[in-house]
Amino acid sequence: MRADVAAPSILGVRHHGPGSAKAVRAELERLKPDVVLIEGPPEADPLVALAGDPGMEPPVALLAHAQGRAAFWPFAVFSPEWQAITYAREAGVEVRFCDLPAAHSLALPEEEEAVRLDPIGELARAAGYDDPERWWDDVVEHRGESGTLHAVAEAMAAIREGHEPSGTEALREAAMRRALRRALKEGFGSVAVVCGAWHVPALTDLPSAAEDERLLRGIPKVKVDMTWVPWTHGRLAARSGYGAGVASPGWYDHLFSASDRPVERWLAGAAAVLREEGLPVSSAHVIESVRLAQGLAGLRGRPLAGLSEVTEAARAVLCEGDDLPVELIQRRMVVGERLGGVPGSTPMVPLQRHLREEQRRWRLKPEALPREHDLDLRKPLDLGRSRLLHRLNLIGVRWGTTRETRGKGTFKESWTLEWHPEFDIALIEAAPLGITVDGAAAARARELAAADGTSLADLTSLVERCLFADLAGPLPDILQAIKDKAALDGQVSHLMAALPALVRAQRYGDVRGSGGLAAITDSLLARICAGLAPALTGLDDDSARQMVALIDGVHSAVGLLESDLWPATLANLARRTGLPGIIEGRIVRILFDADASVDDVSVRMARAMSSGNPPERAAAWMEGFLSGGGLLLVHDPRLLAIVDGWLTGLSAEAFVDVLPLLRRTFGAFAAPERRMIGDRVRSGAPMPANEVSDADDDEQAAGAVRTVLEILGRA
């Protein structure tokens, strides 16, 4: 080292620490270095200039991706590294990254999580603290003094004595030293290094360059691409190479940005959040909560009230002991979920750039917190939003998830939108499929249709997804794949699993503007009806229950079509013998609900509950029949009488045998239904079937019938 070159200044920090960020900024302003080296991948050096773009809004992250692997280096405004970048940009000083290149770190095999020394925990115990986080907050985060950086570095040196780095950690520190030597060799008079405090001792006393070069020689390497991507506060812990977890990013952001009186400002903000929710919180509440927080800090010997103190004060005073408002403060302020942004000049694959254009076109802003959207597909704006979200789902970017729609109608959709930083990786991985979202989604649909492992049900579901996404291009290929697969698939259960999605696609085709599905649907339904009876023989209990679910799915789907084939098939099956009890009971219930012309259901139930049948079969029959809900027993005393008579007639041993089945059947009823059935039974013996008078029912219903006829204008 030349005589006119000062020794490098190694500033050890805790990543995403507001106190560390303030201390680093103050120390850099004092040192005025000629170059700043920051822990991070050197491939990102050309991207540093973008940090000064007005469109760059932390939290953001550097993303490196190569050969199906990716790594992130996140930055918040309160991250020491971000403040170092900001200082260097404003001071006109060169800034470089000095970690192991991502080209190497992404090529190395992933290491198992090693159990290593916790330096902060060791220092906290040495200082008499049982909570490492609290010790670090008291010593560094709540002070923000540059002198603490040197004290922490000395403490880390003592903790690291006897520790020999290995694996990726050794390679990273060797790469940092190589970058430091290069900067010194280039003649920079003053060099500042901002890195994790754990690495400070490794950069203070440099071993021979030959030793580091020997360690780094020959390590694997891949081609990587780097870019900036938006990040969120809630995911600041997702960092490559070390754990940088931040449990309270909103609180840390507040500590960094509050110019003075952070406790007072925080509790005043908490009061504002509660007032927005209609909770009565006065200025007196805020004053008393501040006093309590400061009093707790004094009792605990803390230089400033920390998050635990302000939370306890808010719970006791602002929330009056209620935990629900505390959870609101936790969600809105302590985590303070926020999604950053990157400028349009950031390097992106064409697919990412097209999505940004589509988001602006359809006025859908990515947000970190879940937001609900109710869409009316009759409106061009909402229809465009729906198509975009369905297309993104096809390429694996699940920005939106559908939820149950309020009301009825094929023109309504309800979505919950929540953006995750990992979606940028999915977009990059999908980039070879196309340069636009619709092009990539269509290519993905063709890939799925041609894949060997795609089942018939997957193919019919794919038709539905393409219709929702308004992708007509892949439909001929998918429909041909369905024809080919269905012709070779003799499993009736596979055909039944495939039919519902195909029927929905045919039904919604009128709204979405597609057709050509009716012939395939009719063919599948005909094959199902022809092969259903043989498929129901010889089934064990689990297979019978799976078949009941398939029958329900087909029945619901056929309800959207005009077909007499399925009801006739069920009616024929109901007259057969030898069906599993749960399947027979379910078929009878479906026909009963449809008012089909079959034998009286009470006769069928009495036959199934007769002493000639094993109790287990009778219980299974009841499970199948009553799986549609328990109100039937409330409103039809004949059926309740049959069930009650069968249950009371069981022997003790038989009752114990069928009890699990009965619990499963009646446990599925809603609580009000179970209560009403119990009330009917407790009020007296249910009316036997031969004592029920249809005339009584007609007389009781006459008033309601007249009212309905008057409403319909048919009185």
TrEMBL record:
It holds the Pfam family DUF5682. It comes from Planotetraspora mira. InterPro entries: DUF5682, LolB. This is Uncharacterized protein. PANTHER family: OUTER MEMBRANE LOLAB LIPOPROTEIN INSERTION APPARATUS, PTHR30634:SF14. It comes from the Bacteria.
